[in-house]
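Final report, section 2: Outcomes. Of the targets proposed, Hedgehog/Intein (Hint) domain-containing protein is the one most frequently requested by collaborating groups, and we therefore present its record in full.
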Amino acid sequence: MILTPEGERPVEVLRPGDAVVTASGETVAVAWVGHRHLDLRRHPQPERAQPVRVAAHAFGPGLPHRDLVVSPGHALFVEDVLIPAGVLVNGTSVVQLDRSEVVYHHVELAVHDVLVADGLPAESYLDCGNRGTFENHDGPVTLHPDLVASALNLELACAPVVLHGPVVDRVRARLAAKAEVEAEVKAGRSVLARLLRRA
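The predicted structure is given below as tokens.
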């Protein structure tokens, strides 16, 4: 769900000209929405295209407010940088899913920016020479797209794109600590529920 002036709307219904709200609160028009259905059973390297699920509240309350599923190269805006979701996979709060099929949608704006997807700041589409990933563009479609973060055209990104280093390490540590606390809370609730049933 993408934040718009009228509230959240499914990305699948957005069209060029529709208004969306950026993470900075600015209202801008959608330039294009790419979409692609992938049969990952036929992909020679499915792990490079398998979706990544960011669990609800992984980054804090409401961040995101429901599970968010994106491609591994789709960057999230954290600590004023863009970090591809695949870089943050930790096996608990951020996991790469094993799907036989997936449909991706990506919203392009006139200028690369940060949208709000399910409450979490995430990048708009940045053309890194990969428009052929989408079946609705005006050219040949890439048969087996590689959706892991690309280093092309990163100078056009609205914020630094970070794949490794201290910021990524810090964000990964924060995600791990939050996931550990969540696991302890769930375990405590489970123990309490068992005790209450016995009483």
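The chain has one helix and twelve strands.
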